[in-house]
Amino acid sequence: MVETVTNVLDDSEVRRVLAVMAHPDDVDFGAAGTVAGWTDRGIEVVYLMVTDGDAGGFDDGITRAEMAALRREEQRAAAKCAGVGDVRFLGYSDGRVEATLELRRDISRVIRQVRPDRVVMPSPERNYERIYPSHPDHRAVGSAALDAVYPDARNPYAFPELLAEEGLGAWTVREVWISGGPSTNHSVDITDRFDRKLNALRAHASQTGHMGDELPEMLRGWLSGNAAAAGLPEGRLAEAFLVVETA
């Protein structure tokens, strides 16, 4: 692991991680190699997908309900490649996500259920150098997830029904890892786990099946750029994040 910030939690201090993402495949594009390293070290990782990805795919012959079911199964299969067995879905409409109080409450609920030390999420900021991570759903989920981390999930008086009706007490997340934003301060060398990341993305066949050999080439180009920016030797591959202390 390559660090450019000094306040990142050591993995030995982390028991659980929650990844909150907008669509099936988002976590695999942004963080599957890093997640595989965490699970290899015995850290429990839970995925929370805000939508089912029902607006994705390329097949006009499949209904949107069928696409949603397919993408759920693809995400579960992809999660196994990274060592993750707990995948949850909120069922919001793909392409229509907004950072509402309802979404903040739904994410806060899962934070209080899982009680993670670390939360991974998309950036709420637009990335003008690489527009693809800046899908409106990504930015809305990043905004709502960050608000759920601070202040909602830790405040016992925010969404009091979570405690009164569901017995979910307040929980403080110690740090967040933001993926896909315009700035980064932390990189993880995933060279030895590249094949697992690639297999996770290939599990999303409805989204990546048409790419063939272009998929690994695209990934290597992108990840090698991250590695070079982090000062890693030539030939290494890295995922990059903005790590924010939130305790």
From TrEMBL:
Look up the coiled coil feature and give its residue ranges: none
Which SUPFAM superfamilies does this UniProt record tie to the protein? LmbE-like
**One MF term in GO for this entry?**
hydrolase activity, acting on carbon-nitrogen (but not peptide) bonds, in linear amides
Q: What is this protein called?
A: PIG-L family deacetylase
Q: What is the lineage of its organism?
A: Bacteria, Bacillati, Actinomycetota, Actinomycetes, Streptosporangiales
Keyword annotations for this protein, in alphabetical order, are: Zinc
What Pfam families does this protein's entry cite?
A: PIG-L
What GO terms describe the biological role, i.e. biological process, of this protein?
A: glycoside metabolic process
Q: Which Gene3D superfamilies match?
A: LmbE-like
